[in-house]
């Protein structure tokens, strides 16, 4: 049964230009790593042509010089100290403006004129302020010596009415005359018994005395009632609780 099939299997011939075969060959070429790197391997076998004046080399050098800080500041360092159009610092407007701003900000230069002129004050003698100050001193507004003027001694007759009235007023205001009515009490002995403080202390002691405040039960005179309900009930309870 299978003999004919086995004989036919060895005699099958497929045409090489069929779409299936072509597709299989194309897929094999796309997947093949050897064919993918074949061009790169052949280029490596040929070697490298790297000259000094090659475009990539020149581009790399130009980029490095642009990025270099030394090359970036080389022109500025060469031009430093060379001012075009100004023969001196005073003729340069920017430098002049900077110097002027520095002078304005300097406190020492700002106060120099004031320090030079503060010790050279010339005030006339007849100036209004000087005259006003002198008058204030002479009018005892400031001077303590002129402000305190002791009164002179008056000479009055002893029998004048104003002198007699003044003496009476002085006697009334005098402390010695005010306390002269108590001189007779000086040296007299005095007992504290009957004084306000002693009486007040005794009253307070009586109020705080517990013996006088509370009455003892044994001192109270009373006659108990023998037939009272609570007494009768107590007697009955005592008899019921008695062991005898």
From TrEMBL:
Coiled coil: none annotated. The keyword Repeat applies. One of its GO terms (biological process) is cardiac muscle thin filament assembly. Keywords: Actin-binding, Repeat. GO terms for molecular function: actin filament binding. One of its GO terms (cellular component) is Z disc. InterPro entries: NEBU/NEBL, Nebulin-like, Nebulin_repeat. This is NEBU protein. The lineage of its organism: Eukaryota, Metazoa, Chordata, Craniata, Vertebrata. The gene is Neb_4.
């Amino acid at each position: 049964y299978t003999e004919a099939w086995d004989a036919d299997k060895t005699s099958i011939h497929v045409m090489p230009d069929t779409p299936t075969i072509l597709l299989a060959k194309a897929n094999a070429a796309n997947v093949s790593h050897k064919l993918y790197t074949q061009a790169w391997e052949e280029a490596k076998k040929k070697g490298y042509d790297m000259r000094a004046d090659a475009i990539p080399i020149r581009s790399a050098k130009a980029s490095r010089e642009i990025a270099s800080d030394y090359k970036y500041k080389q022109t500025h360092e060469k031009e430093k100290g060379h001012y075009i159009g100004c023969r001196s610092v005073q003729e340069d407007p920017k430098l002049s403006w900077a110097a002027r701003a520095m002078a304005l900000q300097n406190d020492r230069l700002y106060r120099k004129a004031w320090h030079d002129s503060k010790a050279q004050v010339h005030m006339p003698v007849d100036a209004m302020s000087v005259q006003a100050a002198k008058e204030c001193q002479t009018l005892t507004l400031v001077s303590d010596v002129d402000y305190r003027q002791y009164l002179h001694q008056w000479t009055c007759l002893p029998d004048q009415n104003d002198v007699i009235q003044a003496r009476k007023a002085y006697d009334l205001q005098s402390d010695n005359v005010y306390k002269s009515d108590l001189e007779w009490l000086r040296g007299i002995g005095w007992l504290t018994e009957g004084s306000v403080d002693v009486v007040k202390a005794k009253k307070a002691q009586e109020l705080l005395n517990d013996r006088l405040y509370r009455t003892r039960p044994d001192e109270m005179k009373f006659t108990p009632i023998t037939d009272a309900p609570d007494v009768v009930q107590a007697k009955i309870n005592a008899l019921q609780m008695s062991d005898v």
